[in-house]
Amino acid sequence: MVYRIHFTVQDLARTRVAEAPMPLHELELAARALQSRSQPARLDGWRHRARAQLSARARVALALMPAVGYSPGFLSPAKVGAIEDLLEQVRSTPRERVRTSLLETADRHPSLPRWARRLADDASLFAELCTGLSDLHTCLLAPYWDQFTELLAADRTLRMQQWLTGGVEQLLTQANPQWMQWNSPVLEVRMVGGADRDLYLDGEGFLLIPSMFCTRAVVTDGRPVCVSYPACPDQRPRELTALASASGQAGSSGASMLLGRTRTVVLATIAEYQGCSTKELAARAGIAPASASEHATVLREAGLIRSLRHRNSMLHSLTPLGLELLNASEGG
After folding, report:
1. CA gap 206, 120 in Å, rounded
2. What is the pLDDT of residue 148?
3. Less CB within 10 Å around the terminal CB: N or C of the chain?
4. What order do you get walking across the sheet with 186-190 strand by strand?
5. Nearest residue to 308 via CA among 270, 252, 261, 256
6. Distance between CA 182 and CA 9 in Å, rounded?
7. What is the C-alpha separation between 47 and 51, in angstroms, rounded?
8. Helical residues (DSSP H) of the chain, grouped into ranges
9. So what's the pLDDT on residue 39?
């Protein structure tokens, strides 16, 4: 089954990629991944750790976010912002909107817990749900947020390159080819939940949202219509439970490896020309391409840059750790 998303010329002009993480939207995708049995083995360590730390209140919120199917829209708005501000917005949701959202969800999700139907009228139950949502974020996302932000920046570099070389058509074609197919002027998104419908954007634009936990394509039928897709699937961490300590380990050992003049020049060049290819890096740093590739490998292994393959090129961008090192060097 598929969603058929119909574009006008105005929609193509307003197609864009999310420029910053959307905490509650990503939290819903993480909650689905936690419960799904079809997710890849790389998530197993993260799953075991998260399940062991889930509080009773977090499980209340988790019950409204099934592995497949619909969840109440007010819980996971596709918005950028600090998690505290977004949670406060959820707490302030008008009760009539809560009631309408739950009725719509119940029609599409027959196994919605019975207690959920009381949320619009039971203030204490709704407060418990919001607290559970905060606990769920602390457990599933908070330890990995810096790495997700870095992954999102790398994905945007790749999408920008696709847009520059092939326009919106290449962007829509290559963002998630396993689950999304572009047949101008319609984007067909394959679904696992049995949905089969047509969505018309009507000139309001379209938003692509890269995700750390999404392994397929997830359509959010709002305004604008959003589709989440796996961010940099070839570059994603092998085991999420190792991420929290990985950056700290890279710092001391990586800094000592990068005291040489040439690698410092290479790192500074990547900082100035984010998304540059190895060939461009070599030309701007004044070194041979083979040398540029070797230095980029060392920088990447130290966690100071991230490299993505685009066609026959490797594109390099700075990580927060690399920026911190450069800033410290300038301060010295």
Report:
1. 31
2. 83
3. C
4. 180-183, 186-190, 2-6, 197-200
5. 270
6. 15
7. 6
8. 9-13, 23-35, 44-53, 56-62, 83-91, 95-108, 123-140, 145-174, 243-257, 261-272, 278-285, 289-301, 320-331
9. 59
C-beta neighbour count of 314 within 10 angstroms: 18
Which residues of the chain are modeled with pLDDT < 70? Answer: 38-42, 193-195, 233-259, 329-332
Which is it for strands 218-220 and 225-230: parallel, antiparallel or unpaired?
Answer: antiparallel
Give the length of the chain: 332
Q: d(Cα 105, Cα 72) in Å, to the nearest integer?
A: 6
Task: Please tell me the predicted confidence (pLDDT) of residue 247.
Answer: 36
For residues 128 and 132, give the distance between their C-alpha atoms in angstroms, rounded to a whole number: 6
Token pair, residue 238, equals 């092998």
3-state secondary structure of 41: helix
Contact 18, 211 (CB under 8 A): no
Radius of gyration of the chain (CA): 22
Structure tokens at 32: 């689905």
Instruction: Return the C-alpha torsion angle 115, 104, 72, 85, nearest 10.
Output: -110
Strands 206-211 and 225-230: parallel
The pLDDT score that the predictor gives to residue 239 is 41
Beta strand 15-17 with 2-6: parallel, antiparallel or unpaired? unpaired
Q: Provide the whole-model pTM.
A: 0.72
Provide CB contacts within 8 A for 169, sequence distance 6+. Answer: 182, 184
Q: 């075991």: which residue's tokens?
A: 48
